[in-house]
Amino acid sequence: MPEMQHKTTNGYLSREDFCLAISLVPLISIDLCIVSTDRKMLLGFRKNPPAKSYWFTPGGRIRKGEKLEKALSRISRDEFDLDIKKLEGGFPMGAWDHFFSESAFDSFQETHYVNLPYYFKVNETVKNYLDSKVNAQMQHSKWDWFPIDDKTSRKGLIHPYAKVYMNWVKSRADLNS
Question: Are the C-beta atoms of 51 and 94 separated by less than 8 Å?
Answer without folding.
Answer: no
